[in-house]
Specification:
There is one protein chain. With 78 residues, the chain is an all-alpha fold. The protein is built from four helices and no strands. The longest helix has 14 residues. It starts with 20 loop residues before the first helix and ends with a helix. The model has no long low-confidence stretch (mean pLDDT 85).
Length: 78
């Protein structure tokens, strides 16, 4: 028999969410009713939210050093 190919390891990050007791109870009841897991519910909710965002909202912000000079401030001082 041929050897099985090794799977490429998944790159994942850990996220910790703190929920109140009532929120956790609602989430568990929702999951039981819809036969799913809390992790899948949270991932689906995030994906629907992120898919409705504008592309420019998802780009990382470029931070400028506050000490950097701006050409317009030089013109305004004169």
């Amino acid at each position: 028999m041929p050897k099985k190919k090794k799977r490429k390891p998944l790159k994942s990050k850990k996220l910790i969410i703190k929920l109140g007791a009532s929120q956790m109870e609602l989430l568990n009841n929702f999951c039981i009713r819809h036969q799913t897991t809390p992790n899948k519910v949270i991932k689906q909710s995030l994906m629907t939210y992120l898919n409705n965002c504008k592309p420019e909202d998802l780009k990382p912000l470029e931070e400028v050093d506050p000490r950097q000079l701006d050409i317009f401030t030089m013109l305004d001082n004169n």
